Amino acid sequence: MKDSLLPLLACPYCGGDLELHEIRRDGADIMDGSLTCIACSASFGIRGGVPRFAEDITEVQERTAEAFGYEWNRYSTLEARYRQQFLDWIRPLEPAAFAGRNVLEGGCGKGRHTALSAEFGARNVVAIDLSSAVDAAFANTRHLPNAHIVQGDLNHPPVKPVFELAYSIGVLHHLPDPERGFRALVSKLAPGGSMAAWVYGREGNGWIVHIVTPVREHVTARLPHRLLDTLAGALTVPLFAATRLVYGPMGNTAIGRRLPYQPYLTYIAPFDFREQRSIVFDHLVAPVAFYLRRDEFAAWFERAGLEDVQINAHNANSWRGLGRVPAGTAG
User: Under a CB-based contact definition with an 8 Å cutoff, are residues 280 and 243 in contact?
Assistant: First the structure.
């Protein structure tokens, strides 16, 4: 934890300011210590350089955190291709949208988008995740002076409402109540701040909803993570062959565009085997995954009071949205 994070943090229970008690420092990072709420006296630990606010979570949240903690500590490498992926997920936002702003990330995994947000020139980017993936995220971003990793519940973000941009990529649909998490992030925006999100779509994913989801819920999400990882590796073999031999060469031709699931499989065709394996694992490990219709997703922005809303399809199987808090109101 860097000193510059403290003014942005708040008690997740009462919103009060926090007092820092430092025990051990390594360069710019406070590696061990605690934070105490000045208002309600609640106390939170700092371990391994990360403030830890993940308390009082449900059984489903705990299972989800364990699943994704395993995934992102297992697949922890950052790749150059993540830059274009990130921009594709948050379009129409561009890197300039981050420059000089306080940015809030809802669900950071291994920190791949955190690092990019910092490199795009954010004044500060505060990335919150419930899982032990925060350890991988901290390792991947601690060299960046404007990147901060926090372990906490997205339903109760332990930060002040001072952010000019917030985003959540591929996380909200894994929450027990996705819209609640969305509204919690919006509540931390300053007037005029923007909210971007990417979620699984119901449209274009019928075969996953009807075939993969029951198997995931009743079988694969309950398997030991190492065993599921091995299974994901086996399932990736035909996927990798199809994307490299068929979708990659043919996906953007007249014939290729008739292939099933063409936009998405063509998009991931350049990904290496390990990256595709992590995608397969990701789709099989989550205890909860909602596939949202466009009108459901758009309603989140409307009910949150956001304006200038844009909802667009991505790869014909997911939705990306962007909205703005009115200038005269808090989120």
Answer: no
